[in-house]
Structure formats: C-alpha cells, structure tokens
C-alpha cells in the first residue's frame, strides 16, 4: 500500500485516491502529487468547473515528507512581532459594526438551552426533558453522578464587591455565565462579570484561577481589558472586564443566515480574511509573552465599529504548561492537542479553521473533516481562489510542523492572498506594487522564461552571514563558488548564494549539493526546493520544475513568485490551462509582475493562433512600464503572424507598423522590422490588388508606394548597419526593390 505524499496527511492510497485526504496520487513517476482540488484535470473540458491551478500537479517532498516515518523532528517556532494594522490591511474595507446597546443584549430569561447542557466531567447529556416533564437546570449526571447547576448565581441588583451592580445575564459559555453590571465607582460604566458555569467542577475552578493569572499580564489594544477580580459571598470568583459592545463573527454569520431564509450565507471572503489579518497581532503578542490562546473561534472575535476585540481568554495557558486542563471547541481544535497539548502551531490551526468557517458552508467540520479540509470542489470560493485553498490546506496540516509556525508568517501570507482576492473581486482596484520580503522583483521578457528571469530569493536578514555575503562581489560565478565555499560559517544563506553562483556557472552538482545541505538542516526549507526548481528549469526537466514550484506555492501561498515560476514551468511543459490561470493571477495582483505575466499570456495565446487574446494581453502592459517598448514590438510581431496565417490583412499591417514605431528600438532594428512589415504588405497587394486608400507606415497600399517605402527602409538600415558587409547588403536590397522608372 502506497503512502499519501500530501504534506501532513499520513493517509494511504487506496483505489487511486488517499483514504484520508481524498487527494489523487498524481502523474506516474517519482514526483509526488499536490492536492487534487478542483473538478476536472488540467486540459479538461472547458464546460467543467474551473480547474484549480494546483490540480494534479506533482510536488517535491518537503517538511515531514522528508523525515523518517514515526519521527517528530522539532521545528523553529517564531513568536512574532507586535504590529498594528488597520482593518483590511489597506486593501479592502469592512463595513462598520454598530455599537450594541448592552441592556438590549440581555438574555430574557437567562437559561442554558437543553441541547447545550452536558456533564462537565463525562460529557453526557444532562438536564433534558422527558415527555411533558421539562429538563432540570440543577441535579446530578445520570452516568457519573457529578452535580450540575446551570442557574445564574448573580441576580439583578446584586452588588459584587461593593462596587459592581449586576443588571442581568449577557450569555453563557463553556466555562461560565457572563453578566452585565455597572461600575458604581467609575461613573456607572458598563462592565462584564464572568464566573464559573458549575462552581462544583474542580477543573473549571482551577482553570478560572489560572485565567486570573494570565489575564493580569495581558495588555493589548486588540484584547479585551481586565479591570479587576472579585469573589462573591458564596466563594465563586468573578473576572471584571470591559464591556465590548459589538457583534461577534458568530453573531454576524447567524444574522446573515437569518436574512437568507435560514440558508448559510458566508461573509465576503475579503472581509473574512481582513478580520483574521487584524487579530493576528494579538496572537503574536500572546505568543511573545509565552502564552497560548487555545480556543479561537468566530464567537470569540467581536467587531466594534471599525475595530475588533479578542475576548474570552478562558483557555489561555502558558506555552510550557503541561498539567492544566485544556479547553477547546470540537471542530476548531488541532488534532494533536488531546495527546500532545497546545502549541503556537495549534493556535494557527484554530485561526485558519475559523477563516474556513466564515467563507463557506463547512459541512462535516465536527465529523468527517474534524481536522482537515474538504475537497476543493465542494465550495466555489475555494475553486475561485486557489491561493486561499492552499493557505487553508497548509494551516490545517495534520502535523503541527507542516503548518504556519508563527502569527507573523500566517499574517504575511494572508495579506498576499487578500491582495489576490481583492484584485479578482474588484477589477477596478488600482494596481500597485508591494515589495516582497522574500523575493526581489521579477524580470520581464517576451521570450520563453529562463531561471534567471524569475524573482531572485532574498537572503534571510537574521542569517549570521548576511553581512559577510554583501561583501562578496566576485563577478565570475565559478570563482564566486570558490569564495563562498570558504565562508567563515556555512549557513543557509551562504548555501543559497552558492546555489545561485552554481546556476550562473552551469555547475549542476554545486546547486544540488547546496540544496541538499540546506534540506538536511531543515527539511521544511522551501527556499531549497525553490532552488531545485530553478535547476530543473535550467536543465529542461519541466516535470521536476513543476513539482518544485508547486510545493513552494503550497508553502507560501500568498507570494506571487512561486505562481509566476509555476506558470512558466507549466507553459513549457504543456500545462497551458494552469499556466494561463497563474499568469492571470500574477498580472492583476501586482504591477511588478504585470509585464512578465502578460508576456506569458501572449505567448500561450499566440501559440494557439488566438492573436486577439495575445494582443489583449500585451495591451494590458501600461505605458509606464519599462517593458512597454518590448510589448509594442511583440504586438507588431503578432499582428504580422496573424497576417501570415491568413487571419489578417493590410489593416493589421498598418497597426503593426504603428506599434513598431512606438517600440522605440534602435534605428537599425526599427528599419529591419519596418522592412518585414512593408514586404508583407507588398505581398498582400500583389495577391489581392491595390488599395490606394489604405496606408501602411504612411505609404499607400500600391505596388509603387510600397516599393518606394521599402527602398527607403533598406537605405535607412544601411545607414545604421553594424558593419560594412551588412551595409552593402542593405544597399543592394534597396536597389532591388525600388520601383522601376524610365529615367
């Protein structure tokens, strides 16, 4: 039985598909496959659902797939920097949420629904109705005899600690009742009191005490503020916190469902991503403080006006805490938590899981897909936004080492995905360039893409040899390999520099050795896989290049560089449908990628003799781009090609001449291209008759007019010819094509 090669899956291939994640095994050969995703294989009927760009493409092993079976290697986990961003990260807008009147939000009556009454000890159903007999709110579990009590302990008018006057119950949750109160000592401001759901449960009591300790240390603008701690006369402890008068994401989903006649209505995908981007700095803050949130879900994020607040810190625990009870929510909790405990990676799982719940109807999230993503084709939004699907898939990897390892890492990729989503859903959005911290800007060539045209990797700034590498300025690549190999310390950045020098020198063994060394130290290094993809591209091993770039795409789905590289490899391997979609994504998302991607679209379209599409692609390169002259030259060439295959006429040649004039090439090349256009026009006239009313480059479409224009173009070429031999040839051609006269 063959093991599934999808990162973090661990399933087995049965009858052609994985018995755990449902993904296909992919093409024959040694290259493993990426998630199949959308319906229809690459190159399938156009009438099928749009094919995922990652559908059935090979992928290079990375991370856990490079480690020995049964081992759990450690991976560096980043705590993240404490940053603050506006809601929507500046790329989209989220409608403001009205402030909720606290009195109007009170429960009347304050009761725990029977369907939510379970034993705190064994989880059995308690307090349920029997026939006409209503369920009891207090009593003993019929299975384990643990007492339960779902009645609020604080009545309206109760004065807690001589300061907080209880007004009523706001809500009930897994760890306690939440009360609304007035702070009599601070201008009757609204506060929230949170107590235990069942004071008789020792685990719940210890968790509440632990919560006090953690909350006293937390101070962040995105996290609910804690004011005080009080104990009632019955011994029950309460946390006094600020009142957040907004709507939780769970409430927003419920309101949308109600407005949609009871049918699920997701949040707009850009707004859902914006919420996650906004809350991630709060997680970075907690992780940097040595704390884990553990129980993130839509109910725990409240939108207040134009901002958000992370609430309900009942599950917060120390990163090194291995003894306290773990509180989570079924369907959101990472699969390893019950056995291995919580980590930064498990927090990232809950965030990605929450995002999924906001954007599509996640059926089976508490059963069949308890800890995984459903197939891509189950939701149109996942097919439409392939990068988003890849991000969700990585974030829900079975093994924590294969997920995002910090809040910053996830946030950076989410911002990239958001830019793509906005570019697709808002075509009128201004196209701008957003420099990547991982890659330099790409080159742009109308010709087939080589490894040197792809964005170059930046060195990691925290690499200890980053400064030394800047001092290495040897031009000759072979000599540079020697210098770099003698570095004081061989770090990943040094190996990366050696690999690039090896690529320039054509030394494949050097590149392979460098990438192997990087992966030996870090099996999750997508940088090494990127370099392997460049090597495969340089050697014409397109299936290997596709596999490598597809893997990098899955690791950093918010970056455009892997998409451009994968598009180039797919174009050259014949996967044109995939290449077109990837080129389209990169072209519309970032101005720095527009020219390179549109040249790719034009090449594919022209190869299929769809010259209208090729011209449309080229016309999308703006005049402000450095590639605009090359785009005009390509436009002239494709217009001539259309005429050559019988799909155009003199009008195309006139347009080609105009485009050639705008290309701004050197005089000799301009003259040679003009000669080609004029000669094609002459052949059209000779075959189809003269059209004096039509002009090509200012010359009337007659035999005499075009011959005179050709003569002038050849003589111009002679004046600017690079050498004497070429000058003589041009003069001879000018004499040959000039119109015959009697003088």
Descriptive overview:
The protein has 4 domains: 60 residues, no CATH class; 179 residues, Transferase(Phosphotransferase), domain 1, CATH 1.10.510; 186 residues, Alpha Horseshoe (Serine Threonine Protein Phosphatase 5, Tetratricopeptide repeat); 108 residues, Tetratricopeptide repeat domain (Serine Threonine Protein Phosphatase 5, Tetratricopeptide repeat, Alpha Horseshoe), CATH 1.25.40.10. The chain contains 23 helices and 18 strands. The strands form 6 sheets. A 6-stranded antiparallel beta sheet has the order 6-7-8-9-11-10, covered by helices on one side. The longest helix is centred in the last third of the chain and has 22 residues. It starts with a strand and ends in a 6-residue tail after the last helix. About 5% of the residues have low confidence.
How are the SSEs placed, and which strands pair?
Elements: E1 2-3, E2 12-14, E3 17-18, E4 138-140, E5 147-149, E6 159-160, E7 164-172, E8 177-183, E9 189-194, H1 202-215, E10 226-231, E11 237-242, E12 247-248, H2 249-259, H3 269-288, E13 291-292, E14 301-304, E15 307-310, E16 317-318, H4 337-340, H5 344-359, H6 380-384, H7 386-395, H8 407-425, H9 466-470, H10 477-485, H11 492-505, H12 508-521, H13 526-538, H14 542-555, H15 561-573, H16 576-589, H17 591-607, H18 611-619, H19 628-644, H20 650-662, H21 667-688, E17 691-696, E18 699-701, H22 703-719, H23 724-737
Antiparallel strand pairs: 1-2, 2-3, 4-5, 6-7, 7-8, 8-9, 9-11, 10-11, 12-14, 13-16, 14-15, 17-18
Descriptive tags:
three-stranded antiparallel sheet; 743 residues; six-stranded antiparallel sheet; 18 strands; Serine Threonine Protein Phosphatase 5, Tetratricopeptide repeat; Transferase(Phosphotransferase), domain 1; alpha+beta
